[in-house]
Specification:
binds flavin-adenine dinucleotide, 3 domains, 57% helix, 13% strand, Butyryl-CoA Dehydrogenase, subunit A, domain 3, alpha+beta, 13 strands, two-stranded antiparallel ribbon, Butyryl-Coa Dehydrogenase, subunit A, domain 1
């Protein structure tokens, strides 16, 4: 079984030294979220993840969730762990105190999301969608519904799901068939089948609150006729108690490659009672409140799985002896594999990506908070643009890189990585879903190039590039070498953006074929931007902690030398266009 030590030190470094967003620091509601408080929270989070949740990863892989006589049973140990998890208040961390939450900012809850993803993604998924449902209900539902459902969701006694996918509609939700028929009391009867529903049914909570996309009988076809409904597994009585079973049954649970502890369900809705959330026919945009925040969290899943893969690879490389290095000093036997240049390169590749991603995510968490709570509309707006630009990048790049990192972790372990001995192959299998769900990574890339770069709010990408450029220019001293290098790549990204803008007017297939390359180019550059922030502190504070900061500086150097050049490769690959691709005859 892989071991795991939560990276509290690196997280605290970010919280103490990289909380550099003036607008975030102006948010009064977070004045009391001090480094001491955050350290206490992270240390407790580390304990529960390392001790209680980590063993659930193997338990869930070996004893997947099962459907027995119509009841879904979670793997051994999940129920007891979930009970402790909610008793300790982890479901309520970032929720509004009005509904029993602890009101912690995303700058803190994102760290917890990372730890939980490292410990057990399957276990995490049972509460992850509850937070998504909480956000969606909180933004779009009436006060009556909020008061009735949110306190129990926040407490973790009830969980949530997100029901979009159907047999014929995954990416293309316009094809959705589930029907909603209005009743005289303004409730709806929901009928249809949803598939692949994460935590669609299980034995951890007293009730499950499904957020379901369905089409009213009189609504148009396509995406413009979809509404959002709250459909509880058990009807909730007027006094808030759990009443009779609603018309929802579990058809089956999927047998999967990874995240086997997570129950992925086929749900049948047969005249189930539902309550409309938000405006009729605007369900998709309401659901996007849930999905956008959720997409960032999926990116964080990739980061968390990468972290545990790295930690175990490093430990293994320090204890496994094979072969001799070019400068071997060992007179008998072999060297530790960590002495080999290629193993060292692989480890540094992982480390430089992971620490850069964590810092980028921390920057994004600050922007998210500003976009939600800053009193100044213009500032709020700008932050919201940055979040919208970065959401597909974090979702896709972090999860794709987690595939690279878990695959490299297997390689470092050699045959013991491929067999089940060390639990490394499970990390690869568990991560494989992250580039697929919450909108596939290709669809994220299309969203980025066709909708996010230039939208109704204006030229978002150039606003972002200008901001990064001016921050780089403001840096002095030793960090300047790095910021000049980043400037070179910013110019490439500007050219790439111009090319996308031009092609968008004349040859959309060129843009579609370049979308993944563009997303990656922007992503690698954004991670470099996060490294510039780390470097700035590292050079300035070097004397206060030489060991920590020289580690950061050398890791950044690796990132700039060996990883960042991928941004240019993606540009060169993309601008060859799409005519060969589109004209190619597949036999
Ligand atoms: C374990 C698991 C958990 C899940 N959890 C949930 C859940 O909780 N709730 C829920 O509603 N769904 C859930 N899903 C469904 C998941 O979100 C979908 O599988 C995913 O969105 C892709 O849809 P699809 O499988 O129908 O693939 P398709 O949409 O058929 O896509 C097939 C391929 O075509 C590509 N493609 C499709 N359209 C385009 C396009 N316009 N441009 C370029 N490429 C395109 C895709 O990228 C993909 O590579 C889950 C799935 C799994 C496997």
């Amino acid at each position: 079984m892989p071991t795991y030590t939560a990276p509290v030190k690196d997280m605290m470094f970010l919280f103490e030294k990289l909380r550099d967003n003036k607008n975030y620091n102006e948010l009064e509601k977070y004045n009391e979220v001090t480094p001491d408080l955050v350290k206490d929270i992270l240390e407790e989070a580390a304990k529960i993840n390392q001790n209680l949740i980590l063993p659930l990863a193997k338990a869930g892989d070996e004893n997947p969730a099962v459907l027995e006589n119509g009841i879904v049973r979670t793997p051994p140990g999940y129920k007891e762990a979930y009970q402790k998890y909610i008793e300790d208040g982890w479901t309520s961390l970032s929720c509004d105190p009005k509904y029993g939450g602890q009101g912690m900012p995303k700058t803190v809850s994102a760290f917890f999301d990372e730890m939980l993803s490292s410990a057990s993604l399957s276990f995490k998924l049972y509460s992850e969608l509850s937070i998504g449902a909480y956000n969606c209900i909180n933004h779009h539902a009436s006060n009556e519904i909020k008061d009735k459902y949110l306190p129990k969701i926040v407490e973790g006694k009830w969980s949530g799901t997100m029901c979009l996918t159907e047999p014929v509609c995954g990416t293309d939700l316009g094809l959705l068939k589930t029907k909603a028929i209005k009743q005289s009391d303004d409730t709806y009867k929901i009928s249809g089948q949803k598939i692949f529903i994460t935590s669609g049914d299980h034995d951890l909570t007293e009730n499950i609150i499904h957020l379901v996309l369905a089409r009213s009988a009189d609504s148009p076809s396509g995406t413009k006729g979809i509404s959002l409904f709250l459909v509880p597994k058990y009807i909730v009585n007027e006094d808030g108690s759990v009443g009779p079973r609603n018309g929802i049954s579990t058809g089956s649970i999927e047998s999967k490659m990874g995240i086997k502890g997570s129950a992925t369900c086929v749900l049948n809705f047969d005249d189930a009672t539902g309550y409309m959330i938000g405006t009729k026919d605007k369900g998709l945009s309401a659901m996007f409140t849930m999905m956008n925040l959720e997409r960032i969290v999926v990116g964080i899943q990739g980061l968390g799985i990468s972290e545990i893969a790295y930690q175990n690879s490093l430990a293994y490389a320090k204890e496994r002896k094979q072969g001799k290095t070019n400068n071997s000093k060992s007179s008998n036997g072999a060297d530790f594999i960590i002495e080999h240049a290629d193993i060292r390169r692989t480890l540094l590749n992982m480390k430089s990506i992971i620490e850069g991603e964590r810092a980028l995510c921390f920057w994004l968490s600050q922007q998210t908070e500003v976009s939600l709570y800053h009193p100044d509309e213009k500032i709020k707006h700008d932050a919201s643009d940055y979040v919208s630009l970065m959401t597909p990048v974090v979702k896709s790049l972090f999860t794709d890189l987690a595939m690279e990192i878990t695959s490299d972790a297997m390689q470092i372990h050699g045959g013991y990585g491929y067999t089940k001995d060390q639990g490394i192959e499970q990390l690869y299998r568990d991560n494989r879903i992250t580039p697929i769900y919450e909108g596939t990574n290709s669809v994220q890339a299309a969203d980025l190039v066709f909708r996010k770069l230039f939208n109704k709010n204006g030229d978002i990408i150039n606003k972002f590039l200008d901001m990064v450029k001016s921050e780089c220019e403001s840096k002095n001293g030793k960090v300047k070498t790095f910021s000049k290098e980043l400037n070179y790549y910013l110019d490439i990204l500007s050219k790439f953006t111009g090319w996308i803008g031009d092609k968008n007017k004349i040859e959309k297939d060129d843009v579609s074929a370049a979308a993944n390359d563009y997303l990656k180019s922007l992503g690698y550059i954004s991670i470099a931007y996060a490294w510039i922030k780390i470097l700035d502190v590292s050079f300035n504070d070097f004397n206060t902690n030489e060991e920590f900061y020289s580690d950061k500086i050398n890791t950044a150097k690796f990132y700039f030398d060996k990883v960042l050049p991928r941004a240019e490769y993606h540009y060169k690959s993309a601008i060859s266009g799409s005519s060969n691709i589109m004209n190619f005859k597949f036999n």
